[in-house]
Structures are given as C-alpha cells and as structure tokens.
C-alpha cells in the first residue's frame, strides 16, 4: 500500500511540470476566451452608457432614470431594438412594438412571462412563485364570465364600503385617499375573492393589503444588494425577507381552517351550497391542476392579492388625483353616469358600464399618462429567437417593450404630454362613425377602451398572458369612480392647482400615497 502511494507520488512529481503547464495554459485560454468571446448581443445598441459602469447605470435606473431611458430608446430605435441596464440581473433587450405580433406566437418554453416575473420579484429570495397557471386560469374561466352575475354584489359592496370608510364631507374635508382606497379595494375585491363575510374580517384586509407591501419592500431590499453576486449570501438574512416569510405563515394560519371547513362541509353535508368566490373556484380547479395542500391555497391567495389589490388601488388613486387636477371634465362624466344609470334602473350592469364611455376614456387616459410601469411585455428568453429583421436573441436575455415611449408618441397620441380625459372617447366616436356600416365598427370601438390591449396600449401587457383580471378591475374602478363623482366634488388640499407628482422607482411609476385630497358632498 505504502509502495503504491510512493509510486503515484513519483509519477506525479515526474509529471508536475507538465500538469502545472497544462493548468496554466487552460487558465490563460479561459481568460482569453472570456475576453475575446463573441458577445451575442454585441450588435444591439445601448441606451444609457453615458451614465457610467453597470452599477452606476443600475442606480440611475432605480432612482428615477428609467422613464427617460425607455422614451429616448423608443424615439431613437422606433422600429428596432436596444439594450439598457435595469434592476434585473439578466441582460435586457428592449424591442419595438412592431415585433409583438410575431413574439406573441412563441410558446412559453421559448419566451416565458412567468420566469421574467419571478426574476423581477426576486422569487429566489422572496419565495413568491407565480409559475402556476391556476390563478390566471380561474380568473379566465370562472371570474370574467361571471361578471354579469357578480356585478350587483360588487356594486353593493362598493356602496357600502365607500359609505363606511369615507368621513362625512358636508364641507371640504381632507381625506387620506390612498389608505381609504386600499381598504375599499381590498374589501370589494375580497367580496369576490373570499366571500361576503370574510372580506370584512380585519385579518383578511390586513393580509390583502400588507402582503404586497412587504413583498415589494423585500424585493427592493434584495435588489439594493451590491455587488449583485452578494445577493445569494446576504438576501436570506435580510429582515425584510424574514418578515415576508412570517406574513405568508400568518396567511396560511388564517386560511387553512377556512379551506378545511369548506372541504369538510362539501364532503359531509349533501345540502351544502358551495360559496361563489375565487377561493372556492381555486379549490375546485384541483380537478384540473391536482390537489393542493391548504398552505398552497393560502399561497395562491397571496398571489391573487398581489396581482389585484395594489394594481387596482394605484390606478384608482391616479384617477382621483386626475379628477382633482383636471376638474373641467368632471361635470360631463357626472352627467353621463347619471343618464346611463337612469337608463339602467340605477344598476351597474355590464351594459351600463360599457355605455359610460367618457368615464372609460378618463380611466384609460389615466393609464396612458400615469402607467404603473414604464415597460411592458417582460419575457425571459429560454431558447434563441430569430426576429423577422434577422436579429437573433439568445437564451438568458429578458425582453421588454418600451411602453412609456409608445404612450408618448405624438404620431399616435397628439400632444402626448397633455392629460386629455376625453381623448379616447373622441377616438372611439371617430372610429365608430367612420366604420359604422361595417363589422369593423365593433373592432374599432374595442381598440380604445380601458380594457383593450394593442401594440399602442400595453398597460395590461400583451398576448396570451395579458392581464386576465382587467375586466374585473375595470368594473370595480368604474363603480368606485362613478359613485364618487355622484357623491362628491374632489380637489387638492386648499384648492391648490396642479397634479400631485408620481414617484419613479425603477420601472414603476407610483402615485404619492401620502397626499390628501379634499372631498365635499354635492
Ligand atoms: C388596474 C389594475 C391592473 C393592472 C394595471 C394590471 C396589470 C397587469 C400586467 C401588466 C400584467 C402582465 C401582462 C403581460 O405581461 O402580458 C398582469 C398579469 C396578471 N394580472 Fe393584472 N393588472 C391589474 C389588475 C388585476 C386584477 C384585479 C387581477 C385579479 C383579479 C389581476 C390578475 C393578474 C394575473 C393572474 C396575471 C398573470 C397572467 C398570466 O400569468 O397569464 N390583475 N396584470
């Protein structure tokens, strides 16, 4: 044995110079290869290189620079492609909306929305896994088709919650509008997500509002770790990440007995009438998606809250700030709401809401001028893509579309920086009368609505993963704003003029949650 070891050592020491040289040559070759390796994105021009190295560019993007980058990039490469540095770890390639029709045909194993979202949310550390289809499936199959049936319940909850949450406003009264709207949206959405009793439970309301706040806080804390390669070592120990995990456990503790009780009654009580809500539809979707643990059901409710509550609240908050900043349109909208409701027995039916075209236009203009995100169609490239202009996008890249630049293009939207509440109303009317004799009248009308998705209208995304909840969100926001304009006048504090500015944080454009508005009953 000793002999054998000595022999091996002898051979090694005899060959040491050879082994050493081999290692050295391999190392040099590796370094040279890294230096001279062909960058597959080398042909794609950059926007924002003048901001400095990649860390400086990341910081500039995070601290308010994103908007200008998407606008400049779009203006310079309107039909082409450019690169920029965002908060993502992966390279970001921004493509013209001209490529959307070809990109939307690609399957999910080539171009993945879910992986892009999970990377964006730092799911590796925050734990939010959105790679399950059960939530979008349930919204498309159960929620949206049921809206005609559910509208009276949504309207009833809007009325009740606005009365309960807003103070009496006989004279101009300051209202902390963001926190009021968060509760209104959480409760009204909760009526459909988890039922008429539980939506008023403070534990549900707290979770519906604060899960997303804590998720976004944890995500931001992870994104701020610098340099990027330190994330894996530091992120799991961040206090923000730990409290998010605690929040998920709390939601599970709250929901588990509810799901268990529903399952027990369904099994034991032949006369049991199942609840008509998202929680039940998700449980029922087990037949298609496989049985879910109760903790998994709680996690899916967290995903639903994340997708629905703050997106809807932020949009409604932007609308309220615009009602206060641009009051000239309000009398016309108020008149329209009154007339339409009178024609529909004072009910918010689907048809009534479709007829509120001026209100719809005001909401859509709000999304155009104050979009929640400056980019859209975030997709991770999983297999190389050959674009029609000959460019090959390699796997590993994240694709985006410069939604902000598109929405400020004067060729599509004259005077794009002006807020024009009736812009889309006029566009619809013009299209409808131009096409009035053809089947395309319906198509033309469909283009300029709050919920419509097109190459120029990307706030709800695009293609097969475009937001499935937008029809529910549209009805909820319309009911809230319609009731508000029928009940109050709204203005900035002290009648101050101008639009409260939004914050630009990375790719997000957030209405200032600390502002107050003043309300006065009509
Ligand atoms: C005004 C409010 C809302 C906005 C601005 C909004 C925006 C978006 C956007 C931009 C996407 C990504 C689409 C894409 O990349 O193509 C999305 C996806 C999604 N949204 Fe919304 N959303 C809103 C309300 C809601 C509501 C109320 C729900 C639930 C009822 C919801 C559920 C979802 C889901 C489940 C997805 C993922 C779709 C999929 O995986 O295929 N959203 N939303």
TrEMBL record:
This is Ent-kaurene oxidase. CDD domains: CYP503A1-like. The keyword Iron applies. GO terms for molecular function: heme binding; iron ion binding; monooxygenase activity; oxidoreductase activity, acting on paired donors, with incorporation or reduction of molecular oxygen. Its cofactor is heme. The lineage of its organism: Eukaryota, Fungi, Dikarya, Ascomycota, Pezizomycotina. InterPro entries: Cyt_P450, Cyt_P450_CS, Cyt_P450_E_grp-IV, Cyt_P450_sf. Heme binds at residue 467. PROSITE patterns: CYTOCHROME_P450. Keywords: Heme, Iron, Membrane, Metal-binding, Monooxygenase, Oxidoreductase, Transmembrane, Transmembrane helix. The keyword Methyltransferase does not apply. Belongs to the cytochrome P450 family. Gene3D superfamilies: Cytochrome P450. The chain crosses the membrane at residues 12-32.
């Amino acid at each position: 044995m000793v002999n054998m070891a000595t022999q091996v050592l002898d051979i090694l020491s005899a060959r040491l110079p050879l082994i050493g040289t081999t290692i050295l040559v391999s190392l040099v070759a590796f370094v040279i290869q890294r230096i001279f390796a062909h960058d597959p994105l080398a042909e794609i021009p950059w926007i924002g290189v003048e901001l400095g190295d990649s860390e400086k560019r990341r910081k500039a993007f995070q601290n308010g620079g994103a908007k200008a980058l998407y606008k400049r990039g779009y203006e310079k490469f309107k039909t082409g492609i450019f690169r920029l540095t965002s908060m993502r770890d992966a390279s970001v390639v921004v493509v013209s909306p001209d490529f959307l029709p070809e990109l939307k045909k690609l399957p999910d194993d080539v171009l993945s929305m879910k992986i892009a979202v999970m990377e964006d949310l730092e799911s590796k550390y925050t734990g939010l896994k959105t790679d399950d289809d059960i939530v979008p499936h349930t919204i498309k199959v159960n929620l949206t088709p049921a809206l005609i049936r559910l509208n009276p319940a949504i309207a009833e909850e809007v009325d009740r919650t606005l009365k309960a949450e807003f103070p009496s406003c006989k004279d101009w009264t300051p209202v902390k509008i963001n926190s009021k709207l968060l509760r209104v949206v959480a409760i009204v959405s909760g009526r459909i997500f988890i039922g008429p009793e539980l939506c008023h439970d403070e534990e549900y309301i707290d979770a519906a509002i604060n899960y997303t706040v804590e998720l976004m806080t944890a995500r931001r804390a992870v994104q701020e770790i610098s340099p990027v390669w330190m994330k894996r070592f530091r992120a799991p120990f961040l206090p923000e990440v730990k409290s998010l995990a605690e929040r998920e456990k709390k939601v599970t503790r709250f929901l588990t007995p509810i799901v268990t009780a529903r399952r027990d009654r369904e099994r034991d009580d032949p006369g049991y009438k199942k609840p008509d809500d998202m929680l039940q539809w998700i449980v029922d979707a087990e037949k298609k998606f496989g049985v879910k643990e109760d903790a998994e059901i709680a996690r899916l409710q967290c995903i639903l809250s994340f997708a629905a509550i703050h997106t809807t609240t932020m949009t409604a908050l932007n609308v309220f700030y615009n009602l206060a900043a641009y009051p000239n349109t309000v009398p016309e909208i108020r008149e329209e709401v009154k007339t339409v409701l009178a024609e529909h027995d004072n009910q918010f039916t689907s048809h009534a809401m479709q007829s509120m075209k001026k209100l719809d236009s005001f909401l859509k203009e709000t999304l155009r001028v104050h979009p929640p995100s400056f980019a859209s169609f975030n997709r991770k490239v999983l297999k190389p893509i050959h674009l029609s202009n000959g460019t090959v996008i390699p796997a590993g890249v994240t694709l985006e579309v410069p939604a902000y630049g598109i929405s400020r293009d004067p060729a599509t939207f004259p005077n794009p920086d002006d807020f024009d509440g009736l812009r889309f109303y006029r566009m619809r009317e013009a299209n409808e009368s131009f096409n009035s004799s053809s089947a395309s009248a319906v198509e033309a009308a469909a283009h300029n609505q709050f919920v419509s998705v097109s190459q120029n209208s990307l706030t709800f995304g695009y293609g097969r993963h475009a937001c499935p909840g937008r029809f529910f969100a549209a009805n909820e926001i319309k009911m809230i704003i319609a009731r508000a304009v029928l009940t109050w006048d709204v203005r900035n504090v002290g009648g101050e003029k101008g639009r409260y500015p939004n914050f630009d944080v990375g790719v997000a454009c957030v209405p200032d949650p600390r502002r107050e508005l003043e309300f006065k009953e009509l």
